[in-house]
Amino acid sequence: MNAPLYNTEILRLAASVPFEARLEGAMASVEKRSPVCGSRVTVDVNMDDSGRIAALGLVVRACALGQASAALMEAHAVGRSVEELDVARDDLTAWLAGDRATPPDWPGLDLFAPALEHRGRHAAIRLAFEAVAEAASEARG
After folding, report:
1. CB-based contact 125:14 (threshold 8 Å)
2. What is the H or E stretch that residue 32 is in?
3. Low pLDDT (below 70) residues in the chain
4. 29 within 8 A of 135, measured Cβ to Cβ
5. What is the edge-to-edge ordering of all strands in the sheet holding 40-47?
6. CA 40 – CA 49 distance, rounded (Å)
7. Please, what is the average pLDDT of the chain?
8. Which long-range contacts (CB under 8 A, 24 or more apart) does 102-109 make?
9. Helix extents (H) in the chain
10. Which entry of 5, 15, 32, 85 is 20 to 30 Å from 139 by CA?
């Protein structure tokens, strides 16, 4: 694979994420950290009465790949159910591990194809997806 790891779209997404967007009175908060690179994502969620994400807050301290992944999560999480978030997390994990041939059905994740061969970057890419899925599950109870 000869595509650059940090392409223009990944860098654009990384620059778009608000780094200090906490939710006051969040129903659940989860922090995830990558022991490999030290990237960290803190997620706050509120759920609606039907068990879907109503509001999302993020604090992101990550490399450009982790920031871009968090931006994709933030852009598409509201309205998603716990089950949808679990599937997105699991499909992303499987794709990065090489256990799935196609990118997950989540807008924009195909941008991370150049990172497939860089296993040390996978944890940062997964952080926001893991944290949001866990926080949504906790909030739902």
Report:
1. no
2. strand 28-33
3. 1-3, 19
4. yes
5. 20-21, 53-61, 40-47, 28-33
6. 29
7. 93
8. 106/72, 106/76, 107/72, 107/75, 107/76, 108/9, 108/13, 108/72, 108/75, 108/76, 109/69, 109/72
9. 8-16, 64-77, 82-97, 122-140
10. 15
